[in-house]
Give the backbone structure.
Amino acid sequence: MNASDRPVHPVALPEGWAPASWRDRPALQQPQYPDASALEAVLGELRRLPPLVTSWEILALKRQVAEAQEGKRFVLQGGDCAESFSDCESGLISNRLKVLLQMSLVLVHGLRLPVVRVGRFAGQYAKPRSADNETRDGVTLPAYRGDNVNQPGFDAASRAADPRRLVKGHARSAMTMNFVRALIDGGFADLHHPEYWDLDWVSHSKLSDEYHRMVAAVGDAVRFMETIGGEQLHNLNRADFYTSHEALLLPYEEALTRQVPRQWGWFNLSTHFPWIGMRTAALDGAHVEYFRGLRNPVAVKVGPSVSAEQLQRLADALNPDNEPGRLTFIQRMGAANVETKLPPLVQAMQRDGRRVLWICDPMHGNTESTSNGYKTRRFDNIQGELERSFDIHAALGSRLGGVHLELTGENVTECLGGARELTELDLERAYRTSVDPRLNYEQSLEIAMLIVRKQAAIARPAQA
Ligand code: PEP
Ligand code: CO
């Protein structure tokens, strides 16, 4: 962004805003609760429960996002499409954290930049749906909207929206946070010893030699740092892992929106880094209204139908003072669209000298169905959108400052391709997602290595 721009730090609430001012706007994707008084009772309980994160963590993250906007950090954001209450389990949580930390180590070392680590978890319990209802064999029921709302089973009791689930979701989020904070405090042996990483897949890749060299270099660097200073390369501490979710269910988010001592304004204390999904990003909609008054750093998903003018108006609404660290756009155009759709948006932000962080979500524009009925994504398309995005930003004098991925630490088979070249037949073996297909452990680490490879190629244009 323009170095001449003055840093502006707003110190007052935007005009007309209150935690409940969204209620005067159309709120899409909200469940219909049959019993309004039961919902009110639950919201009263949530308003009294302790928050999940703190204001100082949120402000620290905002400073890190500001540094990422200046090219001094890279953001790694990832996790499940949807968490489920039954997935709040130690093995799944620690494996997901492990793959994110291993990826971040590859990125720290390969990009020579500190990485901002943001989990898509501890609250990712509500999903936007393309239709309000689902019909099977002539029976129509409300769509499953995530475990914070209802249950996936196809019967009337499962699909009824139950406000008590919001309290359970808050508790599951707190348990997840608690375990993640404890793991990070304690340190993962696997991080200090890349020889413990599960890297059999590397030899299946066409880039096997390159990947082996990368892993060996990360291992050497970790050992060197720990030998000379007793210091850790990744310098983890509990302040260094952040959470995010799509802040979709506005009554829940409002109940966790708080003022804190010795700070002005309002914080969403259910997560550090909430985002607005593509389906609820209308300028005059309830979600944009709710987000505009928060002091958190905020993100918006930007799909191929968004025009440059719409993006400018979104930036006006969400970051009128051009505050550093405040606004991130998560571009999710699809491999087929990114070339044509992204450049005008990036240029519009540059023309106005706006501070935004661009993160690429190469997942949601690349979803397709196989002939055997699975919702999947091709690794080639994910890699393709990501690599083209790096090139497009570089060619425009902008910078892609992060990546947003749906991933798991498990050995699932949900996305096609990758080093082991998973096929449609492999999908049957370990297809476990209830919503969108995720990168598995190996595919996730491979994406981290491909990002390093791509950045190196951009930095050496003569040989590329
Ligand atoms: C998601 O991130 O799971 C999602 C629904 O994304 P989008 O809003 O980009 O479609
Ligand atoms: Co998804």
Notes: The first strand starts at residue 74 and ends at 79. The pocket of cobalt (II) ion (ligand 2) is lined by residues 81, 364, 406, 435-436 (CB under 6 Å). The chain has a mean pLDDT of 92. The two ends are 26 Å apart (CA to CA).
